[in-house]
Amino acid sequence: MTTVRITRTALTRGTLAALSGLLAGFAALTVAELVSAAVRPEASPVTAVGGAAIDRTPAGVKDFAIRNFGENDKLVLQLGIVVTLALFALAVGVLALRYRRTGSAAVLAFGVVGAASAVSRPDSTGVVDGLPSLVGAVAGAVLLYVLIGRLTRPRRIPGEEQEENEGGWDRRGFLIAATAAAAASTVAGAVGRTLNGRSSQNAVASREGVRLPAPASPAEPIPAGAQLRVPGLPPFTTPNNKFYRVDTALVVPKVDANTWRLRIHGKGVRRDLEFSYQDLLDRPLIEREITLCCVSNEVGGPYIGHARWIGVRLSDLLKEAGVKPPSRGGKADQIIARSVDGMTLGTPVEDVMDGRDAMLAVGMNGEPLPFVHGFPVRMLVPGLYGYVSACKWIEDIELTTFDDYDAYWVKRKWARKAPIKTQSRIDTPKPFGRPEAGTVMVAGVAWAQHRGIEKVEIRVDDGPWRPAQLAEQDTVDTWRQWSYPWKATPGGHTLTVRATDGTGEVQTEKRTKTVPDGASGWHSVVVSVD
Ligand SMILES: Nc1nc2c(c(=O)[nH]1)N[C@H]1C(S)=C(S)[C@@H](COP(=O)(O)O)O[C@H]1N2
Ligand SMILES: [Mo]
């Protein structure tokens, strides 16, 4: 009888201790959220730890994450952090039942990790970024100490001897403290969230206030024949909400265009320049069709999109700053573009100044840049993968050399220079599709930005290469659609595509991984014809 009762009490206390750990963790995070509203939203612990984790992720793992979770990779990471923290919190609670001080110390240790992560982020504003984690951890540690106290201290009833029966602990006191803590934490978290949301409202308002001027140099209209009418092909122009997104930002930066500034400075700059958003809008704008793609795109992958961009010609700004390309004696061969979240991307000065339409874009498909695509201003260089050219939320352009500085991805094993490789993709039929025998329209896209696509060929099984019909080319900086009417016979077949770029070079068969400078090889699709 007694044994049973003790066991049950121990079990309940153990469970409540675990719950105390969870409550302490919850309090720590919500208090941190509240404090981060006073510091900056990005300094909240989950964001900071997540960001630091992304920074330390090896190239292979990052690729794995993009492959498996796609654009949900950040959500998966945040969930992972929260679940891990919850498990630790439960364990710390149980530990605290035996070692009350050690439990609280463990909560503080987590706070130190969070603070260190926040301070070490590239966009950190200094030691204040550690405050949310530290203050949160202190709140969590104190709460755990108090709650565990209720679980270990016998209840005192005034005027009576200490009660040793009924499990010997203060059940009522615990429940009151726990409920109060849960309520207070929820309020702290809600207030913190609201305040953090408010800081982005100026940015949202500034974006809504933008009227993009008509471009001084409009894009040629896309020829009607650039879009094939084959079901299963993506539209030539990717709608903004369908455009792929790849970046390291756990929280999308919300920049107020009214306070945004861009600085141009560094090696070979005769005079430093600074621009406001309005300064850029007041300049003659160019409008261009440019297809952007990611170095992490596998053969046949989805990380490519096409849009009509509007912006300022970057070489004009550089010339105004007195910059010369290396081929004309310029001292700097690399541009480091820095974003508000501390990302750095390195681009060859020569490419930006060789006459191509490298730009600081302010508009995408007729609207101001969406926040996820870099509002207020991003860089674009036709022909280069995004990670060496397409800096979103840009705020600083520094001229330097490839010898002197390695940008973010280069420090993580990616190549210093990365022109886009000639690629082609079969969009229809889909892999393992079951088309009917007869004429099947095989179709897809091919791209070799800034060189253009001259030819696309299709091979059925081990047969000869046959030319596909090319859609009209828009410009050399855009992708090109193609189609091939295939006389499909029943049975299993493998369709393979390869492209030839505008210089006459045939897309290589050699399969390479995405690291270090982009995947190569032919895209194949296996189908079974009924
Ligand atoms: N600030 C910032 N800019 C960035 C990145 C980033 O992580 N941070 N990622 C780059 C990469 S790898 C690519 S492929 C493109 C993707 O642009 P999108 O998300 O608008 O498609 O943005 C580039 N610009
Ligand atoms: Mo990328």
Automatic annotation (TrEMBL):
Please report a single Pfam family linked to this protein.
Oxidored_molyb
Q: Where is the Oxidoreductase molybdopterin-binding domain?
A: 251-409
Q: What keywords does the record list, in alphabetical order?
A: Membrane, Transmembrane, Transmembrane helix
Q: What highest taxon heads this organism's lineage?
A: Bacteria
The membrane spanning regions, by residue number, are 75-97, 104-121, 133-152, 173-192
What GO terms describe the biological role, i.e. biological process, of this protein? sulfur compound metabolic process
Statement: the UniProt record of this protein carries the keyword tRNA-binding: no
InterPro entries for the chain: Ig_E-set, Mopterin_OxRdtase_euk, OxRdtase_Mopterin-bd_dom, OxRdtase_Mopterin-bd_sf
GO terms, molecular function: heme binding; molybdopterin cofactor binding; sulfite oxidase activity
What is this protein's record name? Molybdopterin-dependent oxidoreductase
State the organism named in the record: Streptomyces microflavus
